[in-house]
Amino acid sequence: AIDEAFGMALIEAQACGRPVVAFGIGGARETVVDGVTGALVAEPTAAAFAEGIRRVQALTLDPTAIRANALRFDRGRFAGEIQRQVADLLHDAQAA
Fold first, then answer.
1. Fewer CB within 10 Å: N-end or C-end of the chain?
2. Backbone angles phi, psi at 40, to 5 degrees
3. DSSP H or E run through 6
């Protein structure tokens, strides 16, 4: 099994409004909301992934909500958050 630190492919699929089925480790645990944007499976076996696919097919998932989840990782949002964090640190340092 591959333990991706982030899981860009998972985010890309969700950005297109598509649910994903992923092994529930590493970046998948941070980027996939089980039952909302796809399914996380407990073991890297064909049977576990088949069950994950069945679970996703049985759910009524909202492509807009799936995409919104992916947008949490948008490059512009990330840059804005970094800038905000740096500004907060500078403000705190100047106040001290």
1. C
2. -105, 135
3. none
What is the Cα–Cα distance from 81 to 72, expressed in whole angstroms?
Answer: 11
pTM above 0.90, yes or no: no
Token output for 14? 């969700």
Cα–Cα distance measured from residue 65 to residue 22, given in angstroms and rounded to the nearest whole number: 18
| pLDDT tens by residue, 14-61 | 999 999 999 999 889 999 999 999 999 999 999 999 999 999 999 999
Report pLDDT for 80.
Answer: 85
> Cα–Cα distance between 42 and 44 in angstroms, integer?
7
Arithmetic mean of pLDDT, 68-77: 89
**Using CA atoms, how far apart are residues 77 and 27, in angstroms rounded to an integer?**
18
Residue (of 36, 23, 24, 41) closest to 72 by Cα position? 36
